[in-house]
Amino acid sequence: MMNSFLQSLQDPHLVASFQRYCGLLLQVEERLAGGCSNSPGNASGSQGPVERANVFKTSECANGNRRYKTNGSHQYPYRQDKEDGCGMTGYAVKVGNTPTVKIVMYLGQTSKDIIKWPRPLSPPVVKLETRVDAEYGMPSTHAMAATAISFTFLIATMYRYKYSVAFGLLASTMLSALVSLSRLYTGMHTVLDVICGVLITAVLMALTYPFWNILDNFQLTSPLTPIIAIVMPFFMSYTYPALDHYSPTRGDTTIILGVASGCTVGFWMNYQYGRTYEPTGSLPFEIPSITPEVVSLAIARFLIGILVLVATRQVVKTLSLKVLYAWFDVAGHDMEARKRLEIEVPYKFATYSSIGFNATVIVPLLYQLLELL
After folding, report:
1. CA distances (Å), 67 to each of 76, 94, 124, in order?
2. What angle do CA 347, 351, 355 make, to 5 degrees?
3. How far, in Å, CA of 344 to CA of 335, rounded?
4. 112: number of CA atoms within 13 Å, CB side?
C-alpha cells in the first residue's frame, strides 16, 4: 500500500495534471513522413485543438519519439532518450548563513547524485527549464532552500523584532509552498521530490535547532573559524560525488558553499572588529515604518551593493580562470575546460567566496562611508 502510494507521487502525469490546471498544455502534431523536424510548419497534418494560450507544440521522429518547442519566440532545447533514432546525444536521467542552511543545501545537492532518481518524463510533462535537466531530481533543493530560509528567518527574528508571529508563520509557509509548487509548474520535479525536500529540511532544522546558538557563537569567536570556513567547504566541493557525465550540480554546490564560506569569514571579521551593525535600543526591536526616505535608502544600498558584487564576480572570475588556465596549460578560449573538476571548483569557489566576503564586509563599510547606514 505504501509503496503504491509513493509510486503515485512519482507519476509524471500528476505533474502534468497540475500544469494543465495552471494553463500549461501540450499540442501534438501529426507524425512526420520521415526524419526529425524542429519546426511545426514542416509537419504533415493539422494541429490538435488549442484549449488555452500557453501551448507547447511537439513534432515526432519517424520512430515516434517526440521533440518539443514553444509556439512563441522562446525556444527550448529538446529532451530525448539516449537511443532515440534522431541522432541526438543522450541526457542523464542557493541564502542565509546559518549552519543549518548550509547543511540542508549540501545534503540536498549531494543526495541527488547519490539517489539518482530522474526528473519527471517529458511527455507528458512540459519542461520550462533545460539548464538543470541533466541533474537528478530527488529531492527538490529549491523546496529545501525555500523552507530552510523562510523558517530559519522566522525563528531567528520572531523574538528580536516586533511583528505578528502568526503573520510570519503564514508568510514563511506561503513562500515555501509557492517555491515548491513552482517546481511542479516548471516540470522539474515530481510531487514526491518536493514533499521529501520539505520533510528533510524540517527534520534537519528540528535536529540542529538546539545547537544554533552554540554554532553561531563558535563561528563568531573561534580563531579557527577562517581556516575551517575555507578548507572544509572547499574540500566538500572538491570531493563532490562523481558522475559519468557532466552535471551543473557540482558547480551549483560549489557556489553555495563558496558564498557561505565568504560570509562566515566576513561575519567573523566583523565581530572581531566590533562591526556587528546591531540596531540600537532594547529587544524586541521596532520595525521601521516604510517611508519615502526608507525606500530611497534601500534602493541606494541595493544599487551600490549590486555594483560591488557584480564587479567582484567579474574581476575574481577573470583572474582565477587566467591563473588556472596557465597552471593547467589550457587555451583561454576553451569553454569546455571550465567543466573540469580541477578548474571548475577552484574558480567558482574563489569567485563566490569573494562575493560572500565583500557582501558582509566591504559593502557595509561602503554604506558607512557614504552614510547610508
Report:
1. 10, 31, 12
2. 165
3. 11
4. 33
Q: Hey, where are the domains in the chain?
A: 12-70, 92-245
Task: Using DSSP, state whether 26 is helix, strand or coil.
Answer: strand
Contacts 24+ apart (CB under 8 A), 89-93: 91/133, 91/134, 92/134, 92/135, 92/136, 92/243, 92/244, 92/245, 92/247, 93/118, 93/119, 93/136
pLDDT per residue of the chain (373 residues) written in tens, 0 to 9: 778 887 888 888 888 888 888 887 765 544 333 443 333 333 333 333 333 333 344 333 333 344 444 333 333 333 333 333 333 232 222 333 456 777 888 888 888 888 888 888 878 888 887 767 677 888 998 999 899 999 988 988 888 888 889 999 999 999 999 999 999 998 888 899 999 999 999 999 888 888 888 888 898 899 999 999 999 999 999 998 887 778 888 888 999 999 999 999 999 999 998 887 777 777 788 888 889 999 999 999 999 999 999 999 999 999 999 999 999 988 877 788 888 989 999 999 999 999 999 999 999 999 999 988 7
Looking at the DSSP assignment, which residues form a beta bridge with residue 70?
56
Per the CB < 8 A criterion, the answer to whether 91 and 82 are in contact is: yes
* C-alpha to C-alpha distance for 233 and 106, rounded to whole angstroms: 10
Alpha helices, H only, 239-291: 249-272
Cβ of 185: how many Cβ atoms within 10 Å? 17
Greatest Cα-to-Cα distance within the chain, rounded to the nearest angstrom: 76
State the virtual CA torsion across 159, 161, 167, 169 in degrees, nearest 10.
-40
56 has which bridge partners? Answer: 26, 70
Q: Contact at 8 Å (CB) between 116 and 97?
A: no
Q: Is 274 left (phi over 0), alpha (psi -120 to 50) or beta?
A: left
Give the Cα separation of 191 and 181 in Å (integer): 9
Catalytic residues: 142, 189
Q: What SS3 state is found at 67? A: strand
